[in-house]
Amino acid sequence: MVQSVEILIVGAGIAGCAAAVALGRDGHAVRLLERRADFGELGAGLQISPNAWRCLQSWGLDAALREVVSMPEAIVTRDMASGRELGRLPLTNRARQRYGAPYATVLRTDLHSLLLAHAKAQSDLQIGTGMQATAIAQDAAGVDTLITGADDAQYTVRTDAALLAEGVQSTLSAQAMNIAAHDRTGLTAYRGVVKQAALPQRLRSNTVTAWLGRQMHAVVYPLRGGEWLNVVLIVADGLLPPAVNAADLADIRAVLARSQQRHSALEDVLAAIDAHGQPLRDARWTRWPLRLRPAVRDAQELASGRVAALGDAAHPMVPFLAQGAAMAIEDAEQLRQSLASQGSDVVAAFAHYARLRARRVARVQRQAWRNGRIFHLWGPLAAARNLALTVAAPIAMDSPWLYAGGPVPMHGTVAANPPQ
């Protein structure tokens, strides 16, 4: 039986709620802290690859997940200028057969709501909202976290351990692990969602489609069982209009015009979101500058004594491998396993967690950034990329090391590259 540890989780987004579910299942006393007054998770869609699904399944969430996700039939790459299909990776049966779990897409708010509901179902969970953790200190016996409440009153919470899950702009992880602050990538993401019923049949999709262009790309995929379509457009900041005041179709048309890549099908999808899109943060489009830190270099960046970080607070990454949420979910499961294997020795457990996660998340960070550079090629290099995708798909589009690996690995050999 696992010995219970009292753990404060700072941040109740997907990473924090995933950790609350995983640790609560083992009987740990969890205090979940959120600086906002409610638990609404921002953003549009995200992808749940098999490595993340296996973790969620091990927490008993398989049936609940199937009620809210979409199961795309394939991942498809297209040339943005011509619309020509370059490569296709079938998913429907391939993912289950090769990796023991499906490849899914989900509305971020749906996944967050599911995780939060299951966290609340744990018997020893306390939740606090409107509370900002501003400083953290530890000694040999525990962790003291300074908290400012909604009324500006300050008080200190004492726990056995603390997990930092505040996202990419985490200040506590930089403080506790002495790591560099995040920086701009020179890239901006536009995100929107639209009901597929509002689209003509030719624009509806049940695939994850990546349109690859010069200094930009777009990703389109279904949500909520195919009811909605998620669209992400990521562009180099040099293509943005001189004065950007709002995320709207005028901005996006200006981006496309500057890039000289204007395929009608993609433009029609973007126009449909501007006309019929579901509001995100009171707008049909959201615009996010992408930020990250250098790839993790050693385990000390993920844990220090009785304090550990997970998700974007630990290892922010660009979205070109669709692994941000998946890595946070893997982090949560590895924390559970490490605490189970090390008993009540929190310091040893967190060191074990960091040691096992550092290499994998660093590889994902580097590969995601590399993918972005490949996606945004132009000229002869883009022609070479397109030829490689056409000739070598689906092998060139698959990632056995990623999808078969993680803290709940796929049993058996799926490729020459071993899971890590």
Mean pLDDT across the residues is 89
Shape: globular
Determine the strand fraction and express it as a percent band.
Answer: 25-35%
Give the ordered list of helices and strands. Answer: EHEEHHEEHEHEEEEEHEEEEHHEEEHHHH
Summarize the biggest pleated sheet.
Answer: 7 strands, mixed
> How much helicity do the residues have?
25-40%
Per CATH, the superfamily of the domain at 6-72 and 106-182 and 294-375 and 399-403 is: FAD/NAD(P)-binding domain
Predict the CATH topology of the domain at 6-72 and 106-182 and 294-375 and 399-403: FAD/NAD(P)-binding domain
Topology, number of strands: 18
With helices defined by DSSP (H or I, 4 residues minimum), what is the helix count? 12
Uncertain runs with pLDDT below 50, 5 residues or more?
A: 413-420
For the largest sheet, list the strands in their spatial order: 5-4-13-14-15-12-16
Describe the overall structure:
- The protein has 12 helices and 18 strands.
- By secondary structure, the protein is an alpha/beta fold.
- The protein has a domain of 231 residues: FAD/NAD(P)-binding domain.
- The strands form 4 sheets. The chain has a 7-stranded mixed beta sheet with strand order 5-4-13-14-15-12-16, sandwiched between helices. Strands 7-2-1-11-18-17 form a 6-stranded mixed beta sheet. The chain has a 3-stranded antiparallel beta sheet with strand order 8-9-10.
- A hairpin with a 2-residue loop joins strand 13 and strand 14.
- It is globular.
- The C terminus is likely disordered.
